[in-house]
Design goal:
It contains 11 helices and 13 strands. The protein has 303 residues and is α/β, with parallel strands linked by helices. The chain folds into 3 domains: 117 residues, Periplasmic binding protein-like II (D-Maltodextrin-Binding Protein, domain 2, 3-Layer(aba) Sandwich), CATH 3.40.190; 77 residues, D-Maltodextrin-Binding Protein, domain 2 (3-Layer(aba) Sandwich); 67 residues, 2-Layer Sandwich (Double Stranded RNA Binding Domain), CATH 3.30.160.40. Strand 6, helix 5 and strand 7 form a beta-alpha-beta unit. Helix 9 packs across helix 10. It is globular, with a radius of gyration of 19 Å. It binds ligand PBG. The site of ligand PBG has 10 residues, from strand 8 and helix 7.
Length: 303
């Protein structure tokens, strides 16, 4: 008998993450995993592969169809890569839990290090953050659009369509792909929420919210919410070259972030520290925007 329906995108990574949520929930509740049904739902983001996400409508393309299914009670919760979830979510939705975070770093496929890429190497990515960070280290690199799921992008390097690409270690690890070399976070600070899987419920569904709450990893949740609060304060969207990473030590949160110009020529970085529950994102946003060059500032806060 099905007791709970988990909605997910249908990509291999999304399905793997949904299975992780199912296993965690079954374990926490002492249920047979068969009591939890995984419901794959195709999103616009999965259908459109030939254009940059930023160009066709942004992160909502990953969630719109799942949100509708949740609203219409076809599913009881939806599983997301938190990195792909818009900063401003409708009030009727609630982020009920996050799984323990995976490796937050990006991995470079096609060379050992960024410094070792050949002069003028072609790097495929559709992420404005990765593009700007790569160009800030190596202005000679040629960045081309590369979308598609993890295996499509690995294949593009293997076939020589591009010299290199960057992929989140989290996705590679969850899919069991050992490709690539991790790039240290002091060289490439990850995207806000990278490596975190979140589960949303309807805010008015107390039963589902409590069930899902039983698998929440509080440290991941606090760090990702701090990173998302920075995005909110910056009014950043998926066009914005922004990186952020929070860490928790006892009750103290540290939030690091960097903003870049689209061509990576200008960059501003900073960090703040404070107690859990403090408005760290807002504080760091003010500091970064104050120090940012005009070409960076105009990309944020409606600038
Ligand atoms: N934007 C696509 C996306 N969304 C989440 C992940 C990987 C898993 C994660 O970061 O949680 C990826 C692929 C990538 O960036 O390599």
């Amino acid at each position: 008998m099905v007791r709970f329906r988990l909605g997910t995108r249908g990509s291999p990574l999304a399905l793997t993450q949904a299975h992780m949520v199912r296993a965690a929930l079954a374990d926490a509740q002492g249920w047979d995993p068969d009591m939890i049904e995984i419901v794959p739902i195709k999103t616009t983001g999965d259908r459109v592969q030939d254009r940059a996400l930023a160009e066709i409508g942004g992160k909502a393309l990953w969630t719109k169809e799942l949100d509708r299914a949740l609203y219409d009670r076809e599913i009881d919760a939806s599983v997301h890569s938190m990195k792909d979830v818009e900063t401003i979510r409708p009030d009727w939705l609630h982020i009920a839990a996050m799984l323990p975070r995976a490796d937050v770093r990006d991995r470079l496929i096609g060379a050992e290090t960024i410094a070792e890429l050949r002069p003028g190497a072609v790097v495929g990515t559709s992420s404005p953050r990765r593009r700007a960070q790569l160009l800030s280290h190596r202005p000679d690199l040629v960045i081309t659009l590369l979308r598609g799921n993890v295996d499509t992008r690995l294949a593009a390097v293997a076939k020589g369509e591009v010299d290199a690409t960057l992929l989140a270690a989290a996705g590679l690890d969850r899919l069991g792909r050992e490709a690539g070399q991790p790039v240290p976070t002091d060289q490439m600070l990850p995207a806000p929420a990278q490596g975190a899987v979140g589960i949303e419920t309807r805010a008015d569904d107390a039963a589902a919210t409590m069930l899902i709450g039983s698998i929440d990893h509080a440290e991941t949740h606090a760090c990702v919410m701090a990173e998302r609060s920075l995005l909110a304060a910056l009014a950043a969207d998926c066009h914005s070259p922004v990186a952020a990473l929070a860490s928790l030590s006892g009750e103290m949160l540290t939030l690091r972030a960097e903003l870049l110009a689209e061509d990576g020529a200008s960059r501003v970085a900073g960090w703040v520290e404070g107690a859990l529950g403090e408005e760290l994102g807002a504080r760091l946003a003010v500091d970064l925007l104050e120090r940012a060059a005009p070409e960076v500032r105009r990309l944020f806060a409606g600038g």
